[in-house]
Design brief:
Blueprint (H helix, E strand, L loop, with lengths): L20 H4 L3 H7 L3 H11 L11 H6 L10 E6 L9 H7 L1 H14 L4 E6 L4 H16 L15 E6 L9 H8 L13 H4 L6 E5 H5 L1 H7 L1 H5 L9 E8 L5 E6 L4 H7 L9 E5 L8 E2 L9 H6 L8 E6 L4 H15 L5 H18 L6 H13 L6 H27 L16
Helix pairs in contact: 2-6, 2-11, 3-6, 5-6, 5-7, 15-16, 15-18, 16-17, 16-18, 17-18
């Protein structure tokens, strides 16, 4: 395990016009891939150990291999660029600074799964990113890297950039597919899974931006090169997004298995005069960690063993001036607002979590309310239609586990102990 940064996707972000085809290069990896058998491309990605970078961490090559062949149906690739998890901020800058890595990855992936149509489903609010993607796709078409007979291989591919309308639920792959088809974005019942009946009821691969953008480097440098980084079961590199109370927030591309302590060393540590209180390893839908977890390797297995999830590697850092109850309330308000309303546990559960947490944050609750919110969370977890409900329970359970005394302090003083109108920090009372 190395602590050295491994700039691959981020290597040219600081260069002028890094987003142009002239700065990126001639799609050599795609040309190499189109000279291989599609199954050989899939096998190379399997051998690399690349796992989905959108949060779930499912083996990418295995996902591609689920697509049935010789079924007589069109196949589709859909890139999930609807990044909207609180704290997650890696795909947007990647598409801004290096969109051609994504486009080249799309060509390789589409060829491997025998798809002739691909879509990038991007969040509608990020208009600057949409424009940049359109420009990159246009450049690729003009050079003959998209369209008919790519590189003289006889392979055809059409790529469409599609703008969503700003719904968090459309980050869920089946809700995204419904939205792409023109319907209201709501999750579908699985099975059937998208690999069998996805877009337009045809076999479909849905992958995250970073997952697809990582493919060209694997084809260019070899599966062993990629597998040589990271840990035994979490191979390769990834973009770690540090935000919050850190001296130099930003994107740090490093091997999986690096620790937050090591990343903080590179980021200048917690802001001067303060210390870390709690943090998220993978965005707000992952159970929070505290200062006792600073040396946990940031890979899928180690983080899971400690009771959380690596998720999107969105490391939100909070120091001792932050009220845990208020933070969890804000996250819960987000999930309640973004619930699509399709299933009762999520629709009703997130609403009532928000109501009880509001009372708790104001110091108007009782200790019994802690039992109430954990009971509500228990009744959402594993019972909602998609992962939104499960994600909403993560801050609830973990915050009560690690900061029960802080919840109780709100009752004791009749308000938030971090409110200057009410008191100084509660530890000083």
């Amino acid at each position: 395990m190395t602590t050295t940064l491994t700039p691959v996707l981020t290597a040219n972000w600081d260069q002028a016009n890094s987003f142009t085809l002239d700065a990126y290069g001639e799609y050599k990896a795609a040309k190499k891939a189109l000279g291989m058998e599609p199954d050989a491309v899939i096998q190379a990605v399997k051998d690399s150990g690349l796992r989905g970078r959108g949060g779930a961490g499912f083996p990418t090559g295995m996902k591609w291999g689920f697509i049935p062949q010789g079924d007589g149906k069109p196949h589709y690739l859909v890139v999930n660029a609807d990044e909207s998890e609180p704290g997650t901020c890696k795909d947007i800058p990647l598409m801004m600074a290096n969109p051609h890595a994504l486009v080249e990855g799309i060509i390789i992936t589409s060829y491997a799964i025998r798809a002739n149509h691909a879509f990038i489903y991007v969040r509608g609010e990020v208009l600057h990113v949409i424009r940049r993607l359109h420009a990159a796709v246009r450049e690729a078409y003009e050079k003959g890297f998209l369209g008919s007979d790519i590189f003289g291989s006889g392979y055809d591919l059409e790529l469409v950039v599609h703008s969503g309308a700003g719904a968090y639920i459309c980050g869920e792959e089946t809700a995204l597919l419904d939205s792409l088809e023109g319907f209201r974005g709501q999750p579908r019942l699985k099975p059937p899974f998208p690999a069998v009946a996805g877009l337009y009821a045809s076999p479909t691969v849905v992958n995250n931006v970073e997952s697809i953008a990582s493919v060209p480097s694997i084809i260019a440098n070899g599966a062993d090169w990629f597998a040589g980084m990271g840990t035994e079961k979490s191979k390769g590199f990834g973009i770690f997004s540090l935000s919050g109370h850190v001296t130099r927030p930003g994107q740090y591309e490093a091997p999986l298995g690096i620790t937050l302590n090591e990343l903080l060393d590179m980021a200048g540590g917690i802001r001067e005069g303060h210390q870390i209180k709690f943090w998220t390893p993978g965005g707000s839908s992952t159970p929070i960690f505290t200062d006792e977890h600073l040396d946990v390797p940031l890979d899928f297995e180690a983080v899971g063993a400690k009771g959380s999830m690596l998720g999107t590697r969105a490391l939100q850092i909070f120091d001792e001036t932050t009220c845990v109850v208020r933070t969890v309330l804000r996250w819960t308000e987000f999930y309640a607002h973004e619930s699509c309303g399709k299933c009762t546990p999520c629709r009703e559960g997130t609403y009532w979590l928000k109501q009880v947490l509001k009372r708790l944050e104001k110091g108007q609750g009782t200790e019994d309310d802690l039992t109430t919110i954990t009971d509500i969370a228990d009744n959402i977890l594993g019972r909602s239609f998609c992962a939104l409900g499960d994600g909403a329970t993560s801050p609830i359970h973990s915050s009560v586990k690690y900061f029960r005394e802080e919840y109780l302090k709100h009752f004791e003083i009749g308000g938030c102990p971090f409110d200057p109108k009410k008191s100084t920090l509660w530890g000083e009372q």
